[in-house]
Task: structure prediction
Amino acid sequence: MANRKELDPGASPRAAFGERLRRLREERGWTQDELSARTGYSASHISGVETGARTPTAKFTASTDRALGTGDALTRQGAATRNSAILDGFPEFVAHEGRATEMWLFEIGAVPGLFQTQAYAAAITRGAVRRGAITHVQADERLALLARRQQSLARTPAPQVYVVLDESCIRQHVGGPTVMTEQLDHLVMVADMPNTVVQVATFGLGERRSLNKPLTLVTLADRSHVSYAESAHSGQLERDSRFVEPLLTAYHQLQAEALSQAESVAMIIQVRKGIS
Result:
């Protein structure tokens, strides 16, 4: 099948569930439409679960167990999947991210994941574990996914990446002086890459700051755009140009108000020197 997506069951609990569901369905010679008729869920919903883009709900797993005659095997695996620390919508976005020709990142409070050092990312996840927000297993899941995302930046041709950091990203210390110094050095190195532009949006922008929440936009090979944003409990992937284009315009406005890359690097170096 030309549009068949290859699945990596090791990528996440969602991906492992999706791979198993597809394998069980295909072993019976059923199409997604045929499984749809047996479960009452649309073929597109089943496709989303199989590719890891949708979380399998308890009702969905019970229905597929009945249809496939698998007892409660999928119900039990689905329960474990719902304990994932990866928000709905994010796995689907990661697939787009891995194919993007351009990326536009805005972050508040922390360096964007794609440009976090291993020690910085580990410090953030340890903090989440200490607060009880995630488990050690979920922390490992997050770090493994982040490592795979970072590796995708090394593809050829590499995507053009634009990064606007709220000033809080470089001034909020994470992991102690050694970790933070290493992270800021890494940001300076990122800014020196030929396919990357790094800017800082200073605290002084005030009402001129056109974005007030973290945002990622990507440009795909067909020149269409996709946006992704998160709340505390969910991720929102948006493809509709009516909603994405205004966000891209706001991003360009933010770039115009932010420091130039040279000024931004100078600020990062200055902040780094002040770490003790």
